[in-house]
Amino acid sequence: MHELAVTESILEIALRHAEGSKATHITDLYLVVGELASIVDDSVQFYWDFVSEGTIAAGATLHFRRVTAQMQCQNCQHTYAPRESLPCPACGSTHCKVIAGEEFYLESIEIDQPAVGETS
Fold first, then answer.
1. Which of 2, 34, 57, 64 could form a disulfide with 101 if both were Cys (CB 3.0 to 4.6 A apart)?
2. Percent of residues, the chain, with pLDDT higher than 90
3. Is it the case that residue 16 has pLDDT exceeding 60?
4. For residues 18 and 57, is the Cβ–Cβ distance under 8 A?
5. d(CA 94, CA 71)
6. Which residues pair with 44 in a beta bridge?
7. CB of 24 closer than 8 Å to CB of 113
8. What does pTM read for this prediction?
9. pLDDT on residue 113
10. At a CB cut-off of 8 Å and minimum separation 6, what does 98 contact?
11. CATH (domain of 66)
12. CA atoms of 3 and 40, how far apart (whole Å)
């Protein structure tokens, strides 16, 4: 259910930036979602259709770009993608940190603006 709050935040951010650019319509939103983020694309899309209704973002297409998880061993500095287990495949250490894959953010939006000389 946290996708509802997340989706409402995405809408608020998109509307703030679009209105600051005098947009008449938001057409596309580009989201970056890490493999380890607990975000379900279909849920965000479902809530988007609901929360954006009646706004300049209604009908906008959501584009999801997934970022694969990356770990870095704090002992040998080896960088790797965790799969079956989390220990470092180079040295076996469990002293590792996540360096990618937890992201979730609105990367960009595409908007329509009034033509030059038009007023909205």
1. 34
2. 85
3. yes
4. yes
5. 11
6. none
7. yes
8. 0.82
9. 82
10. 36, 69, 70, 71
11. 3.30.2320.80
12. 7
What's the CA gap between 37 and 69, in Å, rounded? 10
Strand runs (DSSP E) across 10-103, as ranges?
A: 25-34, 61-67, 70-73, 79-80, 96-100
pLDDT in tens, 21-40: 999 999 999 999 999 998 99
Number of domains making up the chain: 1
In a domain, 118, yes or no: no
Q: Which residues 6+ apart lie within 8 Å of 36 measured at CB?
A: 69, 98, 101, 102
In a domain, 79, yes or no: yes
Which is more confident, 110 or 82? Answer: 110
User: How many residues are there in the chain?
Assistant: 120
Residue 66 φ/ψ, nearest 5 degrees: -90, 140
Determine the pLDDT at residue 118: 60
